[in-house]
Every structure is written in C-alpha cells, then in structure tokens.
Specification:
The structure holds 2 protein chains of 2 kinds. Chain A is mostly beta strands. Chain A contains no helices and 11 strands. In chain B, strands 2, 5, 6, 10, 11 and 12 form a 6-stranded mixed beta sheet that branches. In chain B, strands 3-9-8-7 form a 4-stranded antiparallel beta sheet, with no helix packed on it. Chain B is mainly beta. The chains are: A mainly beta, B mainly beta.
Chain lengths: ~110, ~110
C-alpha cells in the first residue's frame, strides 16, 4: 500500500514569491495534518483536517498561509508571499481518524527561500 | 503546556555499543508517548509507542518504558548497528491526536 505522497520534494524560491505543496494521504485516512519542521527541531502542527473540514488551524499564520482539502482527500498548502523565515521542511501526515490512531508521515517538502 | 524535552545530540557510537536517548515530558492527564525515527531523506516513521504507565514499547531491538513517576520515556538499544543512524524524535499525543515532538537527537553509528 502506498504511503503518504508529497510533492515537490524540494523547492527553491525567492522571497515574496508564492509556493504550493501537495499531499496525497494514505487511502481511507480521513484525518490529514500539515506540519512545519524547522532545522534542528521537531515538527510543529500547522493545520489538521477531518475530511474536508479544517478543525484546528490555530497555528497557521493566516496572513500568508492557506490550505485546502476540497474533496476530503488531497490537500494543498500555500504560502503567499514567502519570507526568508519560511525556509523549512513541510510535512504531511495522515491517520484513520483522530482517536488513538497512528499518524503516518510523508517524506516532506524542503523549502528554501532566498 | 504539554511538551517533550529530549537529550541533545549529536550522539556518535561505535557499532554494537549500547544506546540511551533520554526523553522527559510535561503533560496534563495521561498522554500516549512515542518514539519516531527519521532516516536521511525520509519522513518520520513510528518506531514504538506506549499508551499507559509502565507499558513498554519495543521494535527492531529498541525499547522504551513509560515511567509516570519520573515522567520519562527513554529510548534504549543494547547493540546499535550502522543502519540505526538517523534522527530520533520523542513525542507525546495530546487531545484530538495532536502530537508534540521533541527537538530530535541525531545518532551516528560508526563501523
């Protein structure tokens, strides 16, 4: 069974440019998470979806970040405009639900903002 | 708030040496505790977990015991291999399956 798929794997952009990341969760997983992992740190949750509903976006910087999961499957995370401090690895994870289920992580997208 | 503090790295060991990576937590209630491993270029993979006090999680020769009295969940392995080289993250699960991760400990095992 395929794991969580993310693309692109790497992205280099100049500051003030927009960027988007895509995630395809494991089939049948209703809950999807976006995390940001800064260099030398653990992942920090940005947003959590239950099906197509964003149920926790309290850590998402809403002035420049947006996310969507229109059909409750794939998800896109966007940054517009990007800032130097946005350089990080953006991880997507999915789980069956939000009970006691294990979260499965994708390989991440490494973003470098110049 | 709920948080995890883990041993700073990097840790460098010779093959077949014993490994301990310390992890302590602060939480209200009784969280589930996890160790995740991140190999170079890959995402985080669940290594082991424990859901209540005195539970021992184990996988691939790694073990960790949920110690409520010391609020700890130290990762141990009796004999490490070169293939164990990776970054290890301690984590706890709070409400709604949200995870709080430690900063990670990089382990390098030399032949």
């Amino acid at each position: 069974e395929a794991g969580v798929v993310q693309s692109p794997r790497y992205k280099i952009i100049e500051k003030k440019q927009p960027v988007a990341f895509w995630c395809n969760p494991i089939s049948g997983h209703n809950t999807l998470y976006w995390y940001r992992q800064n260099l030398g740190q653990g992942p920090e949750l940005l947003i959590r979806y239950e099906n197509e509903e964003a149920v926790d976006d309290s850590q998402l910087p809403k002035d420049r970040f947006s996310a969507e999961r229109l059909k409750g499957v794939d998800s896109t995370l966007k940054i517009q405009p990007a800032e130097l401090g946005d350089s990080a690895v953006y991880l997507c994870a999915s789980s069956l639900g939000t009970g006691q289920e294990t979260q499965y992580f994708g390989p991440g997208t490494r973003l470098l903002v110049l | 708030g709920d948080s995890v503090t883990q041993m700073e790295g990097p840790v460098t060991l010779s093959e077949e040496a014993c490994l301990t990576i310390n992890c302590t937590y602060t939480a209200t209630g009784y969280p589930s505790l996890f160790w995740y491993v991140q190999y170079p270029g890959e995402g985080l993979q669940l290594l082991l977990k424990a859901t209540k006090a005195d539970d021992k999680g184990s996988n691939k020769g790694f073990e960790a015991t949920y110690r409520k009295e010391t609020t700890s969940f130290h990762l141990e392995k009796g004999s490490v291999q070169v293939s164990d080289s990776a970054v290890y993250f301690c984590a706890l699960r709070v409400k709604n399956n949200d995870m709080r991760f430690g900063a990670g400990t990089r382990l390098t095992v030399k032949p």
